[in-house]
Amino acid sequence: MVLEDSTTDKSQQIDIIMEEFKALRNEILFRASTQLNIIKLNITAMGLIAGAYFTKTDLFYNRILFLIPVISPILGLLWLDNATSITNIGNFIQKDIKSDIKHILGKEIPDFESYVRELEFKRLDRSFLIGIPVLTLFALLPLIALLVPILTTQFEETKTTILALCAPGVIFLLIFSFYWIRFVWVRIPSDKQTL
């Protein structure tokens, strides 16, 4: 992304790059805020559905828990999409914007992004601190919601009907789990030079 036009002085080049940087940082803030809202929405939806399950006893309300394994993983995929976008924006800032500024100035500049990335790859704490709560919220609790009505209710329907009720939840849980594993564990760079 380095601007090579000789008529543009260093100050103008830096200003252009800094405007790009500000826009990207605002995008990160927006996506982080969206992630928080997704978590709030998921907790609210699970609470309302679980509340309906525990307050009513007829057959319809026994089946209502089957909604959680559909809704939660879908929201989890949206959360992961935002997390991936934040990571990609951070990579762009680190690799392109920071290097462009370094090229224009002709000297090293402080780079907190590289420092943080180095720590992330040295410690698996980040994977557990972010990964486990996300997995619990968007997959493990929905899995429990899928199993509770099966294990505690005598359904009048056939096994085929019960499988039909469970299938969408199982599919979404598997899809979310696949993308969660990809997000959490595929974080090691292929080249240490990229740090």
Describe this structure in words.
There is one protein chain. With 195 residues, the chain is mostly helical. It has one domain (10-194). It has six helices and no strands. The chain has helices spanning 10-55, 59-63, 68-105, 112-122, 125-152, 159-185. Helix 1 (10-55) runs antiparallel to helix 3, helix 3 (68-105) runs parallel beside helix 6 (159-185) and helix 5 (125-152) packs antiparallel against helix 6. The longest helix is centred in the N-terminal third of the chain and has 46 residues, at 10-55. The protein is elongated, with a radius of gyration of 23 Å. The model is unreliable at 188-195 (pLDDT under 50).
What is this structure's SSE topology?
Elements: H1 10-55, H2 59-63, H3 68-105, H4 112-122, H5 125-152, H6 159-185
Helix pairs in contact: 1-3, 1-5, 3-5, 3-6, 5-6
Q: Could you list some keywords that capture this structure?
A:
6 helices; mainly alpha; about 200 residues; disordered C terminus
| Structural class estimated from helices and strands | mainly alpha
Low-confidence blocks of residues: 188-195
Distance between the termini: 19 Å
Quote the beta fraction: under 5%
**Element string (H = helix, E = strand):** HHHHHH
Helix content: over 70%
Q: What is the average of the pLDDT values? A: 83
Number of domains: 1
Largest sheet: none
- DSSP summary: helix tally: 6
Number of strands: 0
What is the 3D form?
A: elongated
